[in-house]
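Fold it.
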Amino acid sequence: MIIKFETKSQRVKGLCFHPKRPWILASLHSVNTGVIQLWDYRMGTMIDSFHEHEGPIRGLDFHPTQPLFVSGGDDYKIKVWNYKLKRCLFTLTGHYDYVRTVEFHKEQPWIVSASDDQTVRIWNWQSRTCISVLPGHNHYVMCASFHPKQDLVVSASLDQTIRVWDISALKQKSATSGGFGTTGSSAGDEFLKFTQLNQEFFNTGDALVKYVLEGHDRGVNWAQFHPKSDLIVSASDDRTVRTWKITDQRAWAVDTYTGHSHNVSCAVFHEKKDMIISASEDKTLRFYDMGKAQFIKSYKREYERFWVLDVHPHQNLIAAGHDGGLIVFKLERERPAFTSVKNVLYYMKDKYLREVKNGKDTPIAILRKSSSGSSRGLIFDSSMSYCIVTSDHEGGTFELFEVKKSSTSSEDVQIKNPVRKGKGLFAAFVGLQKFATYDPKEKKVFVHSTVSDRTKEVTLDVGPVERIFPAVSGRLLIATEDKVHLYDFEQQKIVASASTPGVKFAIWSDDGSKLALLSKHMITILDSKFNVLCTVLETIRVKSGAFDKDGVFIYTTLNHMKYCLPSGDFGTIKTLELPIYIAHVDGNNISFIDRENNVKVTTIDSTEYKFKLALSQGRTGDIKKIMGEAKILGESIIAYLQQKGYPEIALNFVEDEVTKFNLALECGDIKTAFDVAQKLDKKECWNNLGSEALKQGDIVAVEKAYQKTKNFERLSFLYTITGNTQKLEGMLKIANVRNDVMSRFHNALYLGNTEERVKILQQAGQTNLAYMTAKTHGLEELAEEIKKELGEDFIMPELDFEPQILKPPKPIMIEGNWPLLHTETVDYSDITKTAETIMDEEAINDWVEGIEIPGDENAIPTTTTTPSIPTVGGGSEEDTDWGDSIDIPIEMQATASSGSRFIAPKVGRSATEQWPLNSQSPADHIAAGSFDTAMEILSKAIGIKNFAPLKEQFLSIYASSNLLMPVSPLLPSLPIPLQRNIKGDNEQSKDSSLPKLCILNITELQAKVKEAIKLFNPTTFKNSLDLFREIMRQLLLIPINSKKDEREFKETLSSCMEYVVALRMELNRRDVQNSDPKRAIELAAYVTRCKLQSSHIVLCLNSAMTVAFKNENNLTAATFANRLIKSGPPEKILKQAQYVIQEKEKKPSDKLEIDYDDRNPFVICNISLTPIYAGSEKVACSYCGAHYLPKYNGEQCTVCEMGTVGKKVIGLYEYQNAFKTTVHDEEDF
């Protein structure tokens, strides 16, 4: 029994699987308000909840095709809901007591309901009326359901009987009348009401009792039809489960199943396994084999009674509701035993070993297994002579078979007996005649021989082994808790290791160059040297995978088929209805096997991942080919190309003009940007174009942009620096027309036109400046004219230098665009043309002679006459005998280009740029100045929502990991990153460098916790609270490199959380102790439930006792006094506690009623500061684990002031291990 999903809630009395989606409905037995929960059992999340019933809800059912479900509860009502609209559509009333079960008909618009009013009713949910009442039971009717195919209804009652009803007349009446009634009123309403009452009391309706089944000694709680055969299963308070056979003429009891020690509340058929499952109040589920009529196994809960069961109509899933929630489980693993070797698929089906080769599925042997367990693993050796089959029998067994094909031509399938068998759940061949096994019980790895009984234990020093996997010959993959090791038998040691926790499967590529390690929610791709190439995290379970010939890993989850490139890019290929297991990838064809052991082939569209692969490998030809032949347009591809630094390629996909303009600017394509800007004709576009064109020295584009935006000042300066005096004179004229004095002056200054400047100064009233300008520049006649306008007191200042005419320097480049360095580019503009459309047949014939194909009428005829080819440069004819052209790889084109062309060198990475690539520790990202990625890691790994409290720490870590060395007074300081793992000048170690961190370690923080605990007294509560929160912030950024570090981290964080919760409540209590004594007593009581040091618990109990006693809550005070006495307090407090108990005996009462139950365990909601008692729903902070009510889901935590309430995360240790590419010693920190 494998539990796939579990919830914690109040008692679940109703369950129903959705027929198609991975959903399950659960109804809760809540006293006041009825709650229906809709869960996604694959993702483990609640989708929605529905609250309209008053009181417990007992019956639920999904409609087989419509987005509807029906519910019935103790408020006597039946409600029909639409889960898409998330509301109740209507309510059916008519029952006079609790409604026990409800069910939709598979074909008709009917609902059947059973009630404690001793009747079964059938409703038409379209007309919203009751169309038939089935009386006859003389006690509560506990269950009623339709037959899946026939016109029958079965009901079970506490009157110890099971009744089978014939409703064929009702169906016939419905067909002839076209339905029953309407929701409106008519003149015959009174008559219809009378007819309905008559049916209820005298059963004059259209449903008749066909059989009454008697045999149970006490009330019957459940009855249900078999999905296909004419059987009924019933569950009773007499602690038995019975099956009944019905035919057209009679019905009789078949088998009785015993074993339960209390009332059996439910029993259902499991069609696929041919078994019966029963649930009982004795806290057990029991499983019975119908064929052998005997007990198989049972499952027991420690405290919860089971009430209801449901079997998925299509999948091997079972749900059970109990006192504390529900569980969804399956009986055994459904993964088929298969393996793929050299494009041939081998798999087990029943007792046959089958082979799928070239699309043909044939049995090759009958394996006579001695174990009864289902096959779990199938492993072949390299010679295809032996195979090992493992199973779950008795904790794990293996059997070795010799399956070498016979040399005879007989097509008879041979029967094979095991050559060798033993204990071991996992096995792998490690040589031609050797194989290894691992027994989980003994925790040991053994090596066996295929030709003898020799066995040898492998001595390993890697910790507890969990699984073993095949590797190349002579080697073995060994998985431990958090690592995978490669063991070499010849060297007898571990030769490589990778940090990957919880590995379940290992898959090699065909050439052995890559290895995929599959965990529950993670995929790690390694190369043959165990270097991590990439890691992918999934939110749901990873099921299988295989490499294609290009090294792309195709894998499946529960509901998707996806791909992962060696570069780390991944995406979705298609959605799956049911889980499948990939065996082999051949181009676009995926061979897989499903859970029914059926081998199938599906075709996928590999365009997207092949395009990304070609892009990452720089294969220009393939990129152009894919772009020309395939339709991969879309915002996602454009965003991907832009993100990866290929805007010039993305430019060819874009149709939106604004996006195209931005991409053209990003890749420096001024021509395209200019053309698009003319179409858009927006000022913002011209401004951006002008800025980018000016950087590249495209004067024409800059001039056009300035003209479009009428930026006259920049236009004048542009003409000045390019030496275009003619256009500059034009700008002067434009300034005169615009009457812009400053623009006239600047243009005159740029032109060196002194007379114009003097004229402008005169017109502006600056006569003195005009005179001085004319005089200085030698314009004597003009100066004399101006002097006449000056006063007699004007004195010309004496100059101690010889004046010169102010003119701008002569530009180097006049008018033309700036010269640019030549770089190799790839033309993607002809992506819509393929080779076939570019060259016709004649062009091909002109280039090379055709090859004559024997028997081909369309072959190109060969000629004996060779056409003359003109020589180049007078060379000989041999010079023109060219061979086929060679495609030079893009990375080699630099060396093949001419010396006159400049190829821009690639930009390297600085140490601070390398740090975030080498680590997923947030502190390392902070030290690199990559605050955004650090915050992203903290948000994903532990759900940090508020980063404001971390600002000081971020700046401190960044400053302490980077030095600034002053150089020259006129130059900026030289940044020097401090690194912790650089050894000499080794370039490889530089590529894996990490920053030196100046942060506290876990031991130092634990010492600070002790200091904060010392401050836990009334005078320094606030200081203690601040110090605890500071420690919680510092804990966020410490390195966690092992399980031990993670454990100490969690313990320290939990201790801080408990004290912060206690301090917040105590400070709150002191604020309200005078204004609200009831609230003060509650808060004092809640503090006593915090996990503090024993001495502090004594002080909190004494405080709570005092507050309660002073407010005359003697009973409550006495509970604290009793706890105080048991804890051994000081003598003074002991006497006070004894006195309180004495006073309680005199007056055993509480003046104020408070929300506090000393006998019921609880935790505190840290927003409302109210208790959340055991069994109630609660959520926790993603970081510190503080508890909250579900209504505060998504809020910011009030304890640590950083985390997100209710967010599910994987934790820093798991997140860092998922991306770890290098192993660092703890001493480095």
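Residues 926 and 958 are 6 Å apart (CA to CA).
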